[in-house]
Each structure stands twice: as C-alpha cells, then as structure tokens.
C-alpha cells in the first residue's frame, strides 16, 4: 500500500469525517475554550495550506500550515488515524510540512498543542523535530492547558538533519 501526501483544496465526505474524529479525540482533554483545532471550513480558507496523507483513497493523516505573520506559520490539525499511530506517519507528515514551509522561505513554525497526557506523544515528536517550548504567539493567550512550541527554520538546508531525525524517530 502506497501513502501519498496531497494538498487539500476541497472537502470530501471522508475528510470531513476524519476532521470530525480529530475534534472528538480531544473531548475531555480540555474545556472548549482551551481547544483550538480548526473546523474543516477553517482549514480550507485562504492563508491555510491543508494536506492529507492518503492510502487507498482514504485520509489517514492530516496536517496544515496557517499564516501567523510574514515568515511565520502555525502547524495545525496534525492527526494520524488512531489505528496507524506509532508507524511514523505523523513524523512523515511533519517532515513534509517543514519542507513545504522551508521551500516557501518561512523562517519560523509554531504550534499549540494540549498539555494533557493525551498529547504527550505529539509533544515528544515535536521536541525530537527540534521544536522548543515558547510563549503564546499570534492570537493565543497564555493557557495552562496549552503547550506552545516553535521551530526556527534554517536557510540553505541546515535543517535537513532535523528532518532525518524526525524520520528516524
């Protein structure tokens, strides 16, 4: 089975179901005011680049990049199907998104993820990719139920070692 990562420009029933499951995954991890996942409509707006990893015509992972300010984007809606977690699909998506941002001369990627134990594997993946904790950014306010992280993207390919580290877990 071959997995491809594709830019998503329009909704499909399978993608809508996948994103709804993403929101359902977070129920109970924080109150609604501390959950910042975008709905599918928000992921399909100008200024957001949504991607899906597709296997046999079905989305198995998603990730998006959303503009924060010139040269700074936010990683959004990272999710791998629960049955496929631990197989490197999330690391592959993260490496793809980092390369997409870098190829467009983005110099900083930031993210917000939950502070709940449910998000510990994601925080570990981001840390291994070189992300470090930071203050709230963009429109976010400080929130003890959120973890904010950032990654400076180096020009000239210096972050290729980071991508290799992501892929090697």
Key features of this structure:
169 residues; seven-stranded mixed β-sheet; 5 helices; globular
What about the largest sheet? 7 strands, mixed
Give the number of helices. Answer: 5
Which strand order spans the largest sheet, edge to edge or round the barrel? 1-2-3-4-5-7-6
> What is the overall shape?
globular
Structural class: alpha+beta
Q: Estimate percent helicity.
A: 25-40%
According to DSSP, the number of beta strands is: 7
What is the average per-residue confidence, as pLDDT, rounded to a whole number?
A: 85
Poorly predicted tracts of residues: none
Query: Ends: how far apart?
Result: 21 Å
Set down the secondary structure blueprint.
Elements: E1 3-8, H1 13-25, H2 40-43, E2 48-55, E3 58-69, E4 72-80, H3 89-103, E5 108-114, H4 120-128, E6 132-133, E7 146-152, H5 160-167
Parallel strand pairs: 4-5
Antiparallel strand pairs: 1-2, 2-3, 3-4, 5-7, 6-7
Helix pairs in contact: 3-5
Note down, in words, how this protein is organized.
The model has no long low-confidence stretch (mean pLDDT 85). The protein has a seven-stranded mixed beta sheet, with helices on both faces. It has 169 residues and is of the alpha+beta class. Strand 4, helix 3 and strand 5 form a beta-alpha-beta unit. Helix 3 packs antiparallel against helix 5. It is built from five helices and seven strands. It is globular, with a radius of gyration of 15 Å. It is 29% helix and 30% strand. The longest helix is centred in the middle third of the chain and has 15 residues.
């Amino acid at each position: 089975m071959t997995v491809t990562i594709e830019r998503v420009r329009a909704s499909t029933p399978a993608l809508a179901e996948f994103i709804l499951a993403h929101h359902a995954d977070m129920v109970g991890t924080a109150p609604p005011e501390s959950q910042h996942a975008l709905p599918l409509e928000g992921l399909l707006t100008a200024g957001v680049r949504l991607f899906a990893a597709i296997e046999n015509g079905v989305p198995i992972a998603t990730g998006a990049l959303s503009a924060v300010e010139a040269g700074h984007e936010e990683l959004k809606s990272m999710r791998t199907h629960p049955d496929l977690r631990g197989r490197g699909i999330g690391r592959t998506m993260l490496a793809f998104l980092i390369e997409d941002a870098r190829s467009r001369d983005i110099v900083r990627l930031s993210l917000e993820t939950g502070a709940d134990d449910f998000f510990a594997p994601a925080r570990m993946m981001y840390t291994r990719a070189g992300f470090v904790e930071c203050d709230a950014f963009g429109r976010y306010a400080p929130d003890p139920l959120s973890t904010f992280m950032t990654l400076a993207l180096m020009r000239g390919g210096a972050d290729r070692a980071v991508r290799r580290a992501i892929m090697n877990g």
